[in-house]
Amino acid sequence: MRERKERFADSVEQVEQYTKDALNCQLRVYAFFIGTTDPITGDSWCPDCRTAEPIVEEATKKMSEKDLFIMCEVGDRDHWKTPTNPFRTHPVFKLTEIPTLLSFCLNSGEIGVKSRLLGDGCKDSAQVGTFFSEG
Protein backbone atom coordinates (compact mmCIF):
# COMPACT_ATOMS: atom_id res chain seq x y z
CA MET A 1 0.00 0.00 0.00
CA ARG A 2 1.30 3.46 -0.89
CA GLU A 3 1.49 6.14 1.75
CA ARG A 4 -0.90 9.00 2.26
CA LYS A 5 -0.07 12.45 1.00
CA GLU A 6 0.85 15.10 3.57
CA ARG A 7 1.08 18.89 3.48
CA PHE A 8 1.98 21.59 5.99
CA ALA A 9 0.02 24.85 6.16
CA ASP A 10 0.03 27.97 8.29
CA SER A 11 -2.68 30.02 6.58
CA VAL A 12 -6.35 29.58 5.73
CA GLU A 13 -5.49 30.18 2.08
CA GLN A 14 -3.06 27.25 2.03
CA VAL A 15 -5.57 24.91 3.69
CA GLU A 16 -8.28 26.00 1.23
CA GLN A 17 -6.03 25.46 -1.80
CA TYR A 18 -4.66 22.07 -0.69
CA THR A 19 -8.17 20.92 0.22
CA LYS A 20 -9.88 22.03 -2.97
CA ASP A 21 -7.14 20.58 -5.19
CA ALA A 22 -7.25 17.23 -3.38
CA LEU A 23 -11.05 16.98 -3.31
CA ASN A 24 -11.14 17.71 -7.04
CA CYS A 25 -8.77 14.72 -7.46
CA GLN A 26 -11.17 12.51 -5.47
CA LEU A 27 -8.93 12.33 -2.39
CA ARG A 28 -10.23 12.26 1.17
CA VAL A 29 -8.93 15.31 3.02
CA TYR A 30 -8.23 15.70 6.73
CA ALA A 31 -6.71 18.69 8.52
CA PHE A 32 -5.21 18.83 12.01
CA PHE A 33 -5.13 22.34 13.50
CA ILE A 34 -2.63 22.97 16.28
CA GLY A 35 -0.74 25.80 17.95
CA THR A 36 2.40 26.98 16.18
CA THR A 37 5.71 25.31 16.96
CA ASP A 38 7.84 27.14 19.53
CA PRO A 39 11.25 27.62 17.87
CA ILE A 40 13.02 27.13 21.21
CA THR A 41 11.38 23.85 22.25
CA GLY A 42 10.47 22.48 18.81
CA ASP A 43 6.98 21.67 20.13
CA SER A 44 3.62 23.39 19.90
CA TRP A 45 3.04 26.06 22.53
CA CYS A 46 -0.35 24.39 23.19
CA PRO A 47 -0.13 21.59 25.81
CA ASP A 48 -3.28 19.83 24.53
CA CYS A 49 -1.85 19.90 21.00
CA ARG A 50 1.41 18.37 22.25
CA THR A 51 -0.59 15.53 23.83
CA ALA A 52 -2.77 14.98 20.74
CA GLU A 53 -0.05 15.16 18.09
CA PRO A 54 1.51 11.68 18.58
CA ILE A 55 -1.96 10.10 18.81
CA VAL A 56 -3.08 11.71 15.55
CA GLU A 57 0.23 10.92 13.83
CA GLU A 58 -0.08 7.25 14.82
CA ALA A 59 -3.62 7.10 13.42
CA THR A 60 -2.53 8.65 10.12
CA LYS A 61 -0.19 5.71 9.50
CA LYS A 62 -3.27 3.74 8.45
CA MET A 63 -4.17 6.23 5.72
CA SER A 64 -3.74 5.37 2.05
CA GLU A 65 -2.65 7.14 -1.12
CA LYS A 66 -6.28 8.27 -1.49
CA ASP A 67 -5.93 10.46 1.62
CA LEU A 68 -4.43 13.90 2.13
CA PHE A 69 -3.42 14.91 5.65
CA ILE A 70 -2.83 18.62 6.29
CA MET A 71 -0.99 19.68 9.44
CA CYS A 72 -1.89 23.31 10.06
CA GLU A 73 -0.46 25.71 12.62
CA VAL A 74 -2.95 28.43 13.64
CA GLY A 75 -0.50 30.91 15.16
CA ASP A 76 1.26 31.63 18.41
CA ARG A 77 -0.75 31.80 21.64
CA ASP A 78 -1.55 35.52 21.45
CA HIS A 79 -2.58 35.31 17.78
CA TRP A 80 -4.76 32.24 18.38
CA LYS A 81 -6.52 33.83 21.37
CA THR A 82 -7.58 36.87 19.31
CA PRO A 83 -11.26 36.68 18.28
CA THR A 84 -10.25 37.82 14.78
CA ASN A 85 -7.86 34.90 14.19
CA PRO A 86 -8.56 33.88 10.55
CA PHE A 87 -9.08 30.23 11.52
CA ARG A 88 -11.77 31.29 14.00
CA THR A 89 -13.53 33.63 11.55
CA HIS A 90 -13.25 31.48 8.43
CA PRO A 91 -16.78 30.69 7.14
CA VAL A 92 -16.02 26.96 6.82
CA PHE A 93 -13.33 26.17 9.41
CA LYS A 94 -14.92 28.14 12.31
CA LEU A 95 -12.39 26.85 14.82
CA THR A 96 -13.31 27.31 18.46
CA GLU A 97 -10.49 25.34 20.08
CA ILE A 98 -7.28 23.53 19.36
CA PRO A 99 -6.42 20.84 18.74
CA THR A 100 -9.12 20.26 16.11
CA LEU A 101 -9.42 17.64 13.38
CA LEU A 102 -11.61 18.34 10.35
CA SER A 103 -12.54 16.19 7.38
CA PHE A 104 -13.72 17.94 4.24
CA CYS A 105 -16.13 17.44 1.36
CA LEU A 106 -17.26 19.44 -1.66
CA ASN A 107 -20.76 20.97 -1.62
CA SER A 108 -21.69 22.39 -5.03
CA GLY A 109 -18.01 22.97 -5.76
CA GLU A 110 -17.33 24.66 -2.42
CA ILE A 111 -15.37 23.24 0.51
CA GLY A 112 -17.49 22.01 3.41
CA VAL A 113 -16.77 20.29 6.71
CA LYS A 114 -17.82 16.66 6.74
CA SER A 115 -16.88 15.98 10.39
CA ARG A 116 -15.08 17.56 13.36
CA LEU A 117 -13.20 16.25 16.36
CA LEU A 118 -12.42 18.88 18.97
CA GLY A 119 -10.08 19.33 21.92
CA ASP A 120 -10.04 16.35 24.26
CA GLY A 121 -11.41 14.11 21.49
CA CYS A 122 -8.12 14.60 19.63
CA LYS A 123 -6.28 13.18 22.66
CA ASP A 124 -8.33 9.96 22.68
CA SER A 125 -6.89 7.29 20.38
CA ALA A 126 -10.25 5.50 20.00
CA GLN A 127 -12.04 8.70 18.96
CA VAL A 128 -9.23 9.66 16.60
CA GLY A 129 -9.24 6.19 15.04
CA THR A 130 -13.00 6.35 14.53
CA PHE A 131 -12.72 9.85 13.04
CA PHE A 132 -10.30 8.65 10.35
CA SER A 133 -12.03 5.33 9.68
CA GLU A 134 -15.40 6.99 9.12
CA GLY A 135 -13.84 9.43 6.67
TrEMBL record:
Residues 12-134 form the Thioredoxin domain. GO terms for cellular component: cytosol. One of its GO terms (molecular function) is protein-disulfide reductase [NAD(P)H] activity. Pfam families: TXD17-like_Trx. It comes from the Eukaryota. InterPro entries: Thioredoxin-like_sf (IPR036249), TXNDC17-like (IPR045108), TXNDC17_dom (IPR010357). Belongs to the thioredoxin family. This is Thioredoxin domain-containing protein 17. It comes from Opisthorchis felineus.
